[in-house]
Design the sequence.
């Protein structure tokens, strides 16, 4: 029987400017990037909220990939809208405006069917809501969360409480440093392991990832991409590839070799996202494209 | 017959402050870091200038490792002194003061014996001087240069002229971006290859390196080190390990597999430098320590 992935996160419109161009209200949000990536490998279920302005074509995009959207609710008001830009090396998004809109009162309730999801990803929403979702799932095989600076700053006790309950956490390098007060991703990973999770994945953008766990470290740089036009969503895409791979395993076990491969699939899929604005590139790729890039990644990073 | 490495660069005293401590006038300079690293693997010859304040113990440190210092001159005045600090993630040194002192009128002249050196490293000195050194060596097997922002800004034509003559160049990520106007190390590498060198190595500090050449990219992150106390000299140490490995080859050929291994040895040795202030840690390690860390690096970065 096939495993199912449940993702709970944001469905959004983003307005993005980079040195390579500008887009207005393009489809975004952690749950969208995650789902488009993960659905290449495994069935995905989404819990999220959209506003009355959400386009049917954006629903169709996920539905066509077999993503189950019965957990998506439409609320009065507008869809979450983020507006930001990147400069210079594009390593950090600068926020111009965040309109939470209907996302402000997001209260994730899982449809009955979703409660048996084997793989659960708690994207970077309020840790109190992440805990609430966790309480609704029955006996999942694997759960991990993401987070963001805002929650580390204003809801650290809830976040630490959540981390105690999870086998793994994925977060970016800046978040890992903020959470621990450490000056690098290696020392930060070690500290986060002490907070409860068996594994931590620190996402480093163009510099790849650090996986830390009981067998030490596993690290690789990102897939070499010369024409990075928009890094938005790369981290959520990584999580999608990571989960897509794990959930595709017939006999999943939480071990280092499986998580290494998951990080590799995450890296491979994230490398497509950065090649286009928003979801434009990622949503067009096939499994063959993925396999080809996986080979390219191996060629570029395999020890001689 | 054994190959010999010639390095031309700075011999200096550094005053450094990091979040982990502070040192006054500790031994530094590109040629010192390079020599200590390279001499673990191959014989090294140094051309550089020091002042009357240069300590005999600092000369002994290199001499004890078999480094040939007959190309080192002592001039009237004081030794080059750099003073700087690192904050936060320590990714960038902030300069407080640069006293060039005797280094200001450095005019590298090679002893006759040195002119037959098989491996030549032009550390980050004025590109006009780098060219002058290049003109003094006879039929070397391999030459590469480093550079720095200052020369890219004020001597770009000389630097571009030099790059046309070299099989390889090593520089850090910020320098690669400044030289090319590119926003990432991948696109920057591609542009630098168009400037002449067959291979380019972009040093990324805690994020490792990018090797680019006729066979594409080879990239790895840095060796995972939790307790980074002072990153000063890591790039020059990388170059030292890189050269030490290449020069140790009985039948050197300029090819991708050899340069991949050179980058790995560079990464391994640089990982010791950052564990102590100045040269304190690097100068204490043995070949066994190096081999052990090489295994650790492979474990941490080898594809499953």
Sequence:
């Amino acid at each position: 029987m096939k495993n199912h992935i449940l993702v709970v996160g944001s469905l959004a419109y983003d307005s993005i400017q980079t040195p390579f161009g500008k887009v207005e209200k393009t489809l975004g949000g952690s749950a969208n990037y995650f789902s488009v990536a993960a659905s290449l490998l495994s069935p995905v279920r989404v819990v999220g909220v959209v506003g009355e302005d959400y386009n049917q074509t954006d629903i169709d995009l996920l539905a066509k990939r077999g993503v189950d959207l019965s957990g998506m609710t439409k609320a009065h008001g507008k869809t979450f809208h983020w507006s930001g830009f990147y400069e210079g090396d594009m390593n950090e998004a600068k926020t111009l405006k965040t309109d939470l809109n209907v996302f402000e009162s997001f209260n994730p309730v899982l449809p009955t069917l979703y409660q048996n999801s084997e793989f659960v990803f708690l994207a970077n929403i309020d840790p109190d809501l992440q805990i609430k979702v966790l309480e609704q799932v029955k006996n999942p095989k694997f759960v991990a969360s993401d987070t963001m600076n805002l929650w580390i700053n204003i809801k650290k006790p809830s976040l630490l409480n959540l981390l105690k309950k999870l086998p793994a956490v994925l977060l970016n390098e800046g978040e890992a440093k903020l959470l621990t007060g450490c000056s690098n991703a290696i020392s930060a990973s070690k500290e986060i392991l002490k907070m409860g999770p068996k594994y931590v994945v620190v996402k480093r953008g163009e510099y790849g990832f650090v996986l830390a766990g009981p067998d030490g470290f596993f690290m690789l740089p990102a897939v070499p991409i010369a024409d990075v036009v928009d890094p938005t969503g790369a981290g959520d895409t990584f999580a999608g590839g990571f989960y897509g791979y794990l959930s595709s395993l017939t006999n999943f076990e939480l071990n280092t070799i499986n998580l290494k491969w998951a990080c590799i699939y995450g890296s491979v899929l994230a490398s497509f996202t950065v090649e286009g604005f928003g979801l434009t590139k990622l949503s067009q790729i096939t499994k063959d494209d993925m396999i080809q890039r996986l080979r390219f990644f191996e060629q570029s990073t395999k020890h001689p």
Notes: Chain B has a mean pLDDT of 97.
